[in-house]
Every structure is written in structure tokens, then in C-alpha cells.
Amino acid sequence: MSAPSGPPWWRGYFDDAYFLLHDPLFPEEMSRVEVAAMREMLGLPDGARILDAPSGWGRHTLLFEEAGHHAVGADLSPALLARGKAAAAAGGGRYRAAAADIRALPFRDGAFDAVVNVFTSLGLFLSDDEDVRALREAFRVLRPGGKLLLESMHRDDVVAQYAERDAWVLPDGTQVRARRRFDPVTGISHEVLRWRRGEERGEKRHALRLRTATEIDGLLRRAGFTPIEYYGDWDGSRLERDSPRLVVVAARP
Ligand SMILES: C[S@@+](CC[C@H](N)C(=O)[O-])C[C@H]1O[C@@H](n2cnc3c(N)ncnc32)[C@H](O)[C@@H]1O
Known about the structure:
It is a single chain. This protein is an alpha/beta fold. The chain folds into 2 domains: 185 residues, Rossmann fold; 49 residues. It contains 8 helices and 11 strands. A hairpin with a 2-residue loop joins strand 8 and strand 9. The protein starts with 9 loop residues before the first helix and ends with a strand. 36% of the residues are buried. The site of S-adenosylmethionine has 16 residues, from loops.
């Protein structure tokens, strides 16, 4: 398994096939629990302005809006933005989202009370400098005193129980197999995903930079944030060596 070459892998990865493979793994009830946890951890007042970036198909953006916030998404994937708009329209709502790179957001300085970046969405660029660019954009669009919530896989735990081979079956019968390789020097996890749905077969490759809390803390400080709270899961538990998730709330001073 070698590192993908050419255009960055994330340019074409998040398409309709990605949606069909991932949407069944995120029941709405789970996204509701995550949104409730984010509201609690961020201490959001009613009507707070929230940017969900990247927002994917808006599974959190739409629930923030439903909870009475002014929620906006930003994402680069036309397929996922279209899926979100269709889902919102079917429910009589609206997915307010910009087609934008999280390193160059089309919003004015200080426009938001909170920014959320969840589901290991910072490590896509495979570069500290590019990730700091994205964090600086989040910093710029936050009002002073506003907060960023960042959530990702927790490298210490992932590495301790790294699954080089994995397999699962989706509710529609799609069979999925994953092969992974972790490079401890770069911190990059390379994955090849192969799936089979009836006669249809497909393959996807990604490379994700996994980070420890120590590394995330350093990037946040480089971008100007003051990290204030670390959690080990959505239940607000304390971050430990074997915590399954890494959730950090960081403030723009
Ligand atoms: C792992 S998904 C998470 C999406 C969403 N936060 C969620 O929890 O469902 C990562 C998202 O990042 C988006 N993405 C990748 N590179 C991006 C970039 N440079 N700028 C904006 N969005 C990007 C993808 O289209 C995808 O929707």
C-alpha cells in the first residue's frame, strides 16, 4: 500500500459512493447525541451562530438548526452538499451550507459564536502547516471569546488496537472490507476500502494523519487558540490514554 499520488485524495473521495457507505453507519440518534454533547461542552446560548466545517451532508448542521441555533455548514464535496440539501428539503427544512475549502472560508471575521470540526476532519491534509491554516480560518471567523470544538480519533487508542484488516456488512447487504497500514513516523493511517453490492464492486483509498492530544494541543496554540478542555468521548469523560475519542474545546481569546 503506497501513499496516494496526484491530486489530494480528499478531492474525489467524498462522493455518492462515500455517502452510501457511511450514511448507514451514522443513525440520526447518534448524531443527536453528538449535537447535545457539543451544545453542552460549548455552553451554547439559544440562537448562537454555529459554523460546522467541514459539514459533509449536514448531519450535525441540520440538528443544530433544529435546536434553535443559526447553523451554517461549509464543505468541498458537491455530492455531500447535494445530499444534505435533498434531506433538508424532504423534511421541510434548509441546509444552509457553502461550497468552500475550510482553509479559505467565505465568512467575515468574527461571524460565529462557535465552530465545530468533527469526525477526524482535520487530519485530511497530511500536513501540520495546512491544518494550522484551517485552524487559523476557524479562529478568524470566531468572535473573541468564541469557541472551537474539535473531535477526532484518538491516536494513542487507535494505535494500541490497530486493526490492519476489518470487515462489516451494511443493512442493505453491502459487504465492506478494509486493509490498513499505520506509519508511526508520519502518523499517517493508509486505508484501502473495497465493497461489493450485488454485481457492483468498488474501491476507495484514503490516508489520514492521526494525532495525539499533545500534537493537537500544539497546532491549536500555533493557530492562536487557548485549549481549555479535553474529553475522552462524547459523554464528557476525562481524556485518558485509552479513551476512544479526542474532543477538545478551545477558545479564541
Ligand atoms: C470525515 S467527513 C466529516 C463530515 C462531517 N463533519 C460529519 O461528521 O459527517 C470529512 C468531510 O471533509 C470534507 N472535506 C475534505 N477536504 C475538505 C476541504 N479542503 N475543505 C472543506 N471540506 C473538505 C469532505 O467533503 C467531507 O465531507
